[in-house]
Amino acid sequence: MQIHFKNQQGSDRLLDLTSPKIMGILNFTPDSFSDSGKFFTLDKALYQVEKMLNDGANIIDIGGESTRPNAPIVDLADELERVVPLVEAVRQRFDCLISVDSSKAEVFRQAAKVGADILNDIRALQEPNALETAAQLGLPVCLMHMQGTPQNMQQNPEYDDVVEEVADFLNQRIFACLTAGIPKEHIILDVGFGFGKTVQHNYQLLKHINAFVQSGYPVLAGLSRKSMIGNVLNKPVEQRTIGSVAGALLAVQNGAKIVRVHDVAETADALKIWQAMAECE
Ligand code: 7PJ
């Protein structure tokens, strides 16, 4: 399994998913919950990118909208100002895959123009023009499930069968993408840990992530430092690294192909151990 990336600048990159890959998170927001705005200058952000790449990240995920529960809504101008110069700077300096964590068509368009390779959308291309823009840009997309909005999603998440309902939603979005002209080789799925889910829902999805893997689409898992880790450990965000690595490893063991993480070096070590086991007879 591999994804072929041809971005708007014409560069060709292949992501081989026969072994699991790491997406390193760079949240370029002043209020990002786990980094507390630590990387909110271009220099610091680039330093962090370099470190994540040296530590083994294959993709750098750049977002300008904080989507933690109850986060304030970010307007388009602010998001563009945070994301576009950073994508451009990373593209100029590093030969890596860049995903843009956004839901807005205009952010997709401008980020693609300066070299983004992947559109990572927690709203699964449901915002105005997002689907059409993604199809036009010709970039791979990550479709994530969320119940509600970041403002209300953790108030009272409810499902009869969380696995079935998330699968139904993702299937509908896959259909919408295919209909809009996005090829099936360009679709990545994500169950959306923490997005309108109780801790129990999150663990049900982790346990049954293979149900999504069986669709044949690559599955991305993002549980790094989230409350599903913190609640079980009863630890604050800065003490969730080992729990997050354990969660990433379980996701990979159950078939996830990409893990979205803050702690790249630690995750890379864990995945090397997994790989050593996976490769032997
Ligand atoms: C996710 C994301 C995730 C994908 C965020 C955080 C909140 N994109 N963006 N999957 N989470 N695809 O990192 O805690 O789980 S922002």
UniProtKB/TrEMBL annotation:
Report whether ATP-binding shows up as a keyword of the record. no
One Gene Ontology CC term in the entry: cytosol
Q: Which controlled-vocabulary keywords does the entry list?
A: Folate biosynthesis, Magnesium, Metal-binding, Transferase
EC number assigned by the record: 2.5.1.15
Q: Which InterPro entries does the record associate with it?
A: DHP_synth-like, DHP_synth_dom, Dihydropteroate_synth-like_sf, Pterin-binding_dom
Q: What is the uppermost EC class here?
A: transferase
How the protein assembles, per its UniProt entry? Homodimer.
Catalytic activities = (7,8-dihydropterin-6-yl)methyl diphosphate + 4-aminobenzoate = 7,8-dihydropteroate + diphosphate
Which residue numbers delimit the Pterin-binding domain? 20-272
Biological-process GO terms, alphabetical: folic acid biosynthetic process; tetrahydrofolate biosynthetic process
Q: GO MF terms on file?
A: dihydropteroate synthase activity; metal ion binding
Q: Which cofactor does it need?
A: Mg(2+)
Where on the tree of life does the source sit, at the highest rank? Answer: Bacteria
Source organism lineage? Bacteria, Pseudomonadati, Pseudomonadota, Gammaproteobacteria, Pasteurellales
Under the heading Pfam families, the entry gives: Pterin_bind (PF00809)
Q: What does this protein do?
A: Catalyzes the condensation of para-aminobenzoate (pABA) with 6-hydroxymethyl-7,8-dihydropterin diphosphate (DHPt-PP) to form 7,8-dihydropteroate (H2Pte), the immediate precursor of folate derivatives.
Quick one: which pathway? Cofactor biosynthesis; tetrahydrofolate biosynthesis; 7,8-dihydrofolate from 2-amino-4-hydroxy-6-hydroxymethyl-7,8-dihydropteridine diphosphate and 4-aminobenzoate: step 1/2
* Name assigned to this protein: Dihydropteroate synthase
